[in-house]
Amino acid sequence: MKLVTFIFCIFAGAAWAVEPSEMLDDPILEERARVLSQGLRCPVCQNETIDESNASLAQELRIVLRERLVAGDSDEEAVTYMVSRYGEYVLLRPDARGANLILWLAAPLMLLLALVIAAQTIRRKGRGAAPLSDEEEKELSKILDQ
Amino acid sequence: MIWVMTAVMMTELGHFALILAFGIAIVQMIIPMIGAHRNNPAYMAVAKPAAITQFLLVGFSFCALTWAFVTSDFSLQLVYANSHTDKPMIYKISGVWGNHEGSMLLWQLILTLFGASAAVFGGNLPDRLRARVLSVQASIAVAFFAFILFTSNPFLRLAVPPLNGRDLNPLLQDPGLAFHPPFLYLGYVGLSMAFSFAIAALIEGKVDAAWGRWVRPWTLAAWVFLTLGIALGSWWAYYELGWGGFWFWDPVENASFMPWLIAAALLHSAIVVEKREALKSWTILLAILAFGFSLLGTFIVRSGVLTSVHAFANDPTRGVLILIILAIFLGGALTLFAVRAGAMETKGVFGAVSRESALVLNNVLLAVSCFVVFIGTIWPLVAEMFFGRTLSVGPPFFEAAFTPFMVVLAIVLPVGSILAWKRGNLRRAAKPLLPWVGLAIAAGALAYAMQTGRSALGPVGVALGVWVIGGAIADLWMRSVRGSFKQRLDRILRLPRADWGKSIAHMGMGVTIFGIAAMMAWEIEDIRVVDVGERWDVGQFSFTLDDVRRVEGPNYVTTIADMGVWRRYQELGTLTPEKRFYPVAKMPTTEAAIRNGFLRDIYVVIGDPQADGGYAVRVYIKPFANWIWGGAILMALGGFISLSDRRLRIGVASARPVKMVAAE
Predict the structure, then answer these.
(1) CB distance from A143 to chain B under 8 Å?
(2) Residue B78 resides in a domain
(3) Residue-wise pLDDT tens digits, B151-163
(4) Which of A125, A133, A142 to mutate to test the interface with B (most CBs of B within 10 A)?
(5) Cα B423 to chain center, whole Å?
(6) Domain ranges, residue B611
(7) Is B40 a residue whose pLDDT tops 50?
């Protein structure tokens, strides 16, 4: 799956994802850091989070993120800081601003369109499907009983 | 000397066979189509021998390449770049398709195999339809023969053969990945049959129940292989990448997931065509799209246009050529569809509450969820090209945008699958399901009570899983109609295999949902530095690091840790995670050690030695991990069982006149 990424990251540095030495002593702060770093992309490995990545740059990002949290940033502030420093590219969940609205709205709009078309098809098909009369119902249950 | 001569000859003959097959494919593309148009039996009869010969030639060519790999013929550039004399035999063989050129030859082998099977088993097809199907199939082959021979020829020679090769990427030297590509290709290429049938039907201007019946087995087979291929890839990522992730929403994964979703929609809508002669043009469109997404997947993987994520082939010229192939086939097919789809008259009528409507909803959900995956996959490219924004679309987007569709699908599936055809009754359908609603809610509530107030994901997933599994059981049970328990059981056991297949596949879906939710919600992770001899606890288990040793493997050196696993004071066994280093490729890999269990996996990874002593060690407790792939295997099994149903078995009807089952 993520072979080149993986290979690339191996060469970029021999670290292995989150190292025990990087982890914060405060478990609550560390948990926040883990959650946030799972939403941030390692800039040199194409589709890996900095949490999973073995690249040295990812390690650097993990440390920077933890420094911000220790300095008292809220989650949002810390992420904003990372974006301002490393670019929109590191956000794995693209924001819903500007052109990205197309990305976020495409699915709901498509669903709406599909449902309208489906409803029309079903309504068109429905004409002609007359309900069974009581007699037919009785006959049906007789057949089923056999 | 004779040995060397034979090997050299084999390679040249293999190359020649490939060129010859290209010529035959061109003939098969043109002559039968003209024959079908003029109703000339002699012209149409060309298709069958041509399709078989094509397959035999490509088969020979593939064997020749395999032979070169097995005998380590380093005068072939491809063998030099991807093999090594020390490599275990199984990976010499899987090395044939562990690279771009060889994998395209495998693609072609499977494509011609499907073409030949359609020719051999298609005896019950009307002559003209068969001629057209084989002609369209040959046109796909022509495109890919050209692609292979002009941009990706596996038979290129090196002027000076080196003494040894550069070895196959160590990550690919793994049983899970060795067989991942063949399954995926069987799926991708299997959908080409559905495509060929769709185009042939559009040219004929006729789609009937029989058409649905011919298309469905091919789609079902392709879907089964895709399911297995995706599951293998996911399983491989789980144990090989070293942190137990199983799905990353990587473009390459999405490339195989999109055709899977569309194929799932297609095999459901083909049922409606077959049984009720409705949804014809929509089914044709799905057949075109399914193969379109296969081609798109090939394009994504082979060109590396979206990200340079994948190991093989990042050559832009190849990408452009595949894009042209994609544009011609998809563009041509959709144009044909636009012109001819109106001519498809539908017969079957159905009420708003009916199996047909439920299947329409199934199709809406699957198709739109595929669209979500599609737009998320290509959005970085679009954003960069048109809006100048370099951005990423990762798992958080897909989890937010895709998951709701699967949740809704899981909610409606059990109801839809027991609604009556034509005109159903919701209240009647709900009756056998009611106990399962209760059980699902109870299971969800229990899960919620047992976990310590964390995400809703676990309980909801568990409830949905139980609901879908229960729905599949209720579906079978309902088919027994009434009578004593024994009578009903007898009747269930005698149900057609298609019914069993359906229920098992649906159950598999429930099991997978359950596994994914449970694993994501209740996984425990522990990362720490441990000295040899130390003992520590994770969850209800204890671990000891007993020893760390260095061992030489056949083509690697490895650091092995012996880790004891304990539950309270009872030792469960020793796990031996490894860190390997492949000197030829100069690459390390992690080999996680996993203790597989029905209820949980224990997953341990050994990391680097630390500066101040000890080793970095990761331990994961992954609840219900195996259920994820177990569910996928159940889905595939359901497909196989359904495929073995007499009514669907390919070729069985050729012995006697075709009997329609549409009126069932």
Answers:
(1) no
(2) yes
(3) 889 998 887 778 7
(4) A125
(5) 34
(6) 524-625
(7) yes
